[in-house]
Write a structure and sequence with these properties.
124 residues, alpha+beta, Arc Repressor Mutant, subunit A, four-stranded mixed β-sheet, 4 strands, binds zinc ion, ImmA/IrrE family metallo-endopeptidase, IrrE_HExxH
Length: 124
Amino acid sequence: MSKYIYSAEPESQIPVILNQRISERGRAKHLYHFLSGNAQAQGIRVMEIDMEGLCSAAVATIAGKKVIGIEKTDSAEEKVFSLAHELSHIHLGHLENHSDADKCERQADFAAGILLRALCLAAV
Ligand SMILES: [Zn+2]
C-alpha cells in the first residue's frame, strides 16, 4: 500500500536551455542511467511504466520501499528531468512532510534543475 505519492505534472516543463544541455551529444541516456543507478544503489526502485496520462512521474513509499515511476513513452530528456525531480522529493524529505504541496513541487523542480546543470557541467 502506498503511503504518499508525488507527481511531476504535465505542466512541469524543462527550462529550454537546460533541455538543450541534457540533449547534447546523446547525454540524456547517460544521465538517466547515472541517476537511476545511483537511486538503485540507495535502495530506491526506478520503474518505467505506463502512467496512463495521469502524470509524467511519481514517487511513493510502498511496503517501506521508495519507488519512482517514470512514464515510459516520454522522451529521454523528459525522463531525466522527471527522475531528478522525484529524487529531489525524496532527498528533500517530502515523503515525510508534504503539508505545502505547491512549495514541494517548486523545491523539487529547483533542486532537479541544479542537479542536472551540475551533472551537465561535469559531463556525466
Ligand atoms: Zn513533484
